Amino acid sequence: MNRIRDYKIMPVRGMEYSTNDINKLTLFKGESLRHFTVKAVLFHQLRKLKHDVISEVEIPGLGVGDLIDLTLQIHYEIEFTQTKSIRDGKADKYKRTGFDVIVIDCRKIPDDFKGMQKFLDPYIVVD
Fold it and tell me: What is the pLDDT of residue 3?
């Protein structure tokens, strides 16, 4: 497997992923169906914009990121947590050189796909 260690942009906190993982949606062990569905809708919207995306990418020393938009260098974290401090802590946890972190508060996201798309639209950075 051809693994990439992407430390060019992020000298302190890089990512480890395979070239085969680019534009492939991955289910994280123990992930709820609702979380996976929101991630899939976001993934679909980013791919429609022709962005290269990785899901469930390992960031050594920090954890595993939900979705990373490689095209615009944006890290999307999907959160259903009730506590604002935990949601805010995610942005700080994954903060690193060269990447913006967007935490999406999904507590009030609709159940239908169209509703999810409309809910996620304001979070998506187009260019």
Answer: 57
- The one-character DSSP state at 96 is B
Q: Which of 55, 109, 57, 27 is nearest to 121 (CA)?
A: 109
For residue 79, what are its two tokens? 């959160």
Q: Would you say the C-alpha torsion 111, 113, 116, 118 has a positive or negative sign?
A: negative
Q: How far apart are alpha carbons 51 and 9 in whole angstroms?
A: 18
Q: Are 24 and 40 in contact (CB under 8 A)?
A: no
Q: Domain 34-123 has what CATH class?
A: alpha beta
Taking residues 20-49, report their average pLDDT: 94
User: Domain spans of the chain?
Assistant: 34-123
User: What is the chain's Cα-based Rg?
Assistant: 14
In the prediction, which pLDDT does 119 show?
96
pLDDT of 19 > 90? The answer is no
Question: 64: which strand partners?
Answer: 58
